Amino acid sequence: xxxxxxxxxxxxxxxxxxxxxxxxxxxxxxxxxxxxxxxxxxxxxxxxxxxxxxxxxxxxxxxxxxxxxxxxxxxxxxxxxxxxxxxxxxxxxxxxxxxxxxxxxxxxxxxxxxxxxxxxxxxxxxxxxxxxxxxxxxxxxx
Length: 142
Fold this sequence. Notes:
Blueprint: E1 28-31, E2 36-40, E3 47-53, E4 62-69, H1 72-78, H2 87-95, E5 110-111, E6 115-116, H3 120-123
Antiparallel strand pairs: 1-2, 2-3, 3-4, 5-6
């Protein structure tokens, strides 16, 4: 097999990237203007407000995080640093859910984007110390 059959056609668009600092990141929510955008983080737990870091300051231009948000209200409040944004971009921001992930209330904190985080305090049993755990045997069941 030669490598030619695996080459992409020249007119095919660039593939979406999973790197949050790339121009073609696959979870862009809205481009506010030439230098600012909002994305979903790669783990799917928050919105990130990013600005375009210039090639004058860094070796290459890339997108850099400015703020990390779970609520729409905080995201919109922080977008004031982006300068002028279009009415269409403002409407899209206003249409986002109250909390990241949808709904009008907080979503469980996720660890590594998979399982709810459980703290040690949540795992502690709330048993009275002066009474046995198992009332039928009179002995602690732990």
